[in-house]
């Protein structure tokens, strides 16, 4: 086998430049034949020939074994001219089989040649090994050789284009999924630059993203968006973030961006690539420095990508709004409880010598009644500003947890008198000074075996005690003070017995499909009839079980009882619909649930596809979002569906929603109660739009009035749960209800 690449170019200066052409612009053709004269005649026939706009680079192999060695060590050729008869009468056919089946060279075109017509392959071989052509050597004139090669190269070209399009479409799908999980509009905008660079195969993309808002929409857009402002930039443009387009130093680039905005069309040229992504309320203009020519396939992919970006852009600004509401207090713009809990969880190892400081304004309700909501909010803002300023030198984090409550993390060594001195503040208000008094407590963080949410819950209990016994002062509480009272201890003992002796029971609340006018499943709800005759609320005994480490025992009892009763139900009412089981925060981080659940479902013969696990927003986040995502992913992979319960009442962060593998949202009763108001309708419609964009079903729960159901039906919600349709009931009554409608 010869290792030299034979390039057929003229010797004169004009044509000698072709020899410098990159290998990508040469058709790589491998000649496999044991006759040296065939190689020479092929070289002669193809000298000075250009096929489909490119010259030919010939390589030679004089046996099937030579060809195997070459193909194993080099990139695939475009075409192989393959002799059928070499070492053996079928050496060429065996090589063709090896090329397709073992080496997996599926794009390379193969032209079989033979000097003996009697050795022609069967038709099934032509089809099975994807042979492009078959020729007898003495019939293969220069014209026929070039014709055959041109057809093979054109076929190879088309295969490459199809593969490029497939890769490009896959990139668009992955890019869309990646951008959809962006944590807010800024990250989304930076992601656009990264993904466009990927489509154009740029190692490092340098560019900017500009917001363009129609004049009649400027006032309606989020506070952080200004017309023709730069929201993302990379490379040498990075210093332009948050500045105006007019501050771009290059006049040509400014004019190019302006041209795209005015023409509403993409631009591809030597100056760079500028794309416009049109949203419902505003557009994004993306400028990327790209000196290389953009192919037709890349233009088509970018067109599709920009359409997707336009659809997602409006949703991303809504995510920013909801994130703002989820993590910052609207009155003071300080971090809220959600932010504080997350910060505590992330900083636990660094806070071993610090304390949580909780501050609560005294007699706040009286102040609110006297001043009214608007004036009271102004007073709170001024108090928050002074309090934050006074604590700035000693606090690591400062948050506004609610109307009258603030929190900070301070070093444990801070003198008590320093903290007491900042509690009471004089605030100038409407021409006179208002003296605000407050009560405070501290908790040692190094003692906490609790996460942020649990710690704040304990701190609020301590605050209630301080309000009763130490108002207007500062009191320190060790975590040991969190010991349950006598009633809780007795209730816990009773709960252990109730789980052991099967004293608990299950009720089920059917769901209603308004479009089909039928029941479409149910939610399982655990109930506890206490031996003394009263019903213990789940809101009381479920958290108690979690705190005492009985969460797994309670969950296993519920799982066994529900699947056993549900198996009996579907044996008599096959169309009963799926049953939903609630999972608490503790279970969301116990991977053994997957095996326990699948074993239980198999034991009772219940198809996993008929089961739904319901989680709450806060339960998914408390204890770590990553662990929840992993467990839910495993559950979903087993075949169950995942429903997000009480949506809108917890963290309401859509960056979490985009990451959680959920199939369904349950719209909380608090939204339903406001559905008769325009603002309530707008909020519900926004949630429905986002759910649709994420491919999620929506169930409205807590429906109690016909008017509520009618308004929700007008918003195209069909699945309902609430007392209007059915109350929670034992399984026997569910079966009777469903059979009555069969």
Automatic annotation (TrEMBL):
<keyword id="KW-0597">Phosphoprotein</keyword>
<dbReference type="InterPro" id="IPR050706">
    <property type="entry name" value="Cyclic-di-GMP_PDE-like"/>
</dbReference>
<dbReference type="InterPro" id="IPR021800">
    <property type="entry name" value="DUF3369"/>
</dbReference>
<dbReference type="Pfam" id="PF00990">
    <property type="entry name" value="GGDEF"/>
</dbReference>
<dbReference type="InterPro" id="IPR011006">
    <property type="entry name" value="CheY-like_superfamily"/>
</dbReference>
<dbReference type="InterPro" id="IPR000160">
    <property type="entry name" value="GGDEF_dom"/>
</dbReference>
<dbReference type="GO" id="GO:0071111">
    <property type="term" value="F:cyclic-guanylate-specific phosphodiesterase activity"/>
</dbReference>
<dbReference type="InterPro" id="IPR001633">
    <property type="entry name" value="EAL_dom"/>
</dbReference>
<feature type="modified residue" description="4-aspartylphosphate">
    <location>
        <position position="83"/>
    </location>
</feature>
<dbReference type="GO" id="GO:0000160">
    <property type="term" value="P:phosphorelay signal transduction system"/>
</dbReference>
<dbReference type="Pfam" id="PF11849">
    <property type="entry name" value="DUF3369"/>
</dbReference>
<protein>
    <submittedName>
        <fullName>Diguanylate cyclase (GGDEF) domain-containing protein</fullName>
    </submittedName>
</protein>
<dbReference type="InterPro" id="IPR043128">
    <property type="entry name" value="Rev_trsase/Diguanyl_cyclase"/>
</dbReference>
<dbReference type="InterPro" id="IPR001789">
    <property type="entry name" value="Sig_transdc_resp-reg_receiver"/>
</dbReference>
<dbReference type="InterPro" id="IPR035919">
    <property type="entry name" value="EAL_sf"/>
</dbReference>
<feature type="domain" description="EAL">
    <location>
        <begin position="488"/>
        <end position="742"/>
    </location>
</feature>
<dbReference type="InterPro" id="IPR029787">
    <property type="entry name" value="Nucleotide_cyclase"/>
</dbReference>
<feature type="domain" description="Response regulatory">
    <location>
        <begin position="28"/>
        <end position="152"/>
    </location>
</feature>
<dbReference type="Pfam" id="PF00563">
    <property type="entry name" value="EAL"/>
</dbReference>
<feature type="domain" description="GGDEF">
    <location>
        <begin position="352"/>
        <end position="479"/>
    </location>
</feature>
<dbReference type="Pfam" id="PF00072">
    <property type="entry name" value="Response_reg"/>
</dbReference>
